[in-house]
Amino acid sequence: MLGIGLIKGLSVTFKNLFTPIFTIQYPDKKVGLLAYSKHINKSIFQILKENPKIFLMGIIGMVTIPVKIDQFPRFRGNEFVWYDDRCTACASCAKYCPLGIIEIVTHPAGENMQAGENYAIDKFDIDTGRCMFCGLCVEACPYDALHMGTDFERGNYSRVNLVLDKETLTSQDKNPSSWFRPQFESNEYNPWEESMSNSKDAGRHEKPSYQKIKEKWVNKRKTDG
Ligand code: SF4
Ligand code: SF4
Q: If exposure means fewest CB atoms within 10 Å of the residue's CB, which of 59, 135, 166, 205 is most exposed?
């Protein structure tokens, strides 16, 4: 019959008009006054007294509150955490990266000449816009200076801003990774509440003492030999 297809199509539209909405607003969602008062743990009267504008927006359901989803501590996020104090600028991470997206530029620092001299890092860039998060760079790091953190909210409007440079890596929050770090699980680590501001907090081993190094590489070999 002519027009039956139109009726069928409109019936689907009409049905969906009354079904619940599954859209989840993230990272903020709009709520009404009651939900907002529950969120900030204040009564509606307090909100009215302290912030009438928010009160009015709450009446029309337009107050925004942040939404955070529960995250499993073992989650490996799409960010990098770099401990510059542990990094020797050896560039193993850059060499192992199959996409060649880690760029390291160094110059001789003129320190520790007897031990072979240190390198100062001028540039340490990771282009996360092209990264496939395989983790080979993390595995390649001999000094435990790089890992993938638990953060993932790194959405950006420009690909250029996805390049993590030395300054960003140094200044950003140090979110620990539970990848190969079961100690976080046993410590009941909560990625939403904790941060690892330096490499010692992150459960990394200490630099061995001179005595221990000598024991391992000199004394033991003498006895074995
Ligand atoms: S995770 Fe993989 S692709 Fe990304 S920087 Fe490391 S080695 Fe390269
Ligand atoms: S492999 Fe580790 S120590 Fe070497 S440059 Fe990369 S982060 Fe630094």
A: 205
Q: Which residue has tokens 């337009």?
A: 62
Q: Are residues 56 and 151 in the same domain?
A: no
Compute the Cα dihedral for 89, 92, 95, 97 and give only its sign.
negative
Helix (H) or strand (E) holding 103: strand 102-108
Give dist(CA 40, CA 51) in Å, integer: 13
Domain annotation covers residue 29: yes
The answer, yes or no, to whether any atom of ligand 2 lies below 6 A from the CB of 126, is no
75 Cβ below 6 A of ligand 1 = no
pLDDT digits (tens, 9 = 90+) for 9-43: 999 999 988 888 778 888 788 999 999 999 999 99
Supply φ then ψ for residue 137, to 5 degrees: -65, -40
Cβ atoms 121, 146 nearer than 8 A: no
Domain range for 137 is 80-186
pLDDT, tens only, 170-203: 998 887 776 656 666 666 666 667 677 777 666 6
Residue 174 belongs to domain with CATH number: 3.30.70.3270
| Pair 85, 145 in one domain | yes
Q: Is residue 135 in contact with ligand 1, taking CB distance under 6 Å?
A: yes
pLDDT band, very low/low/confident/very high, at 225 (cuts 50, 70, 90): low
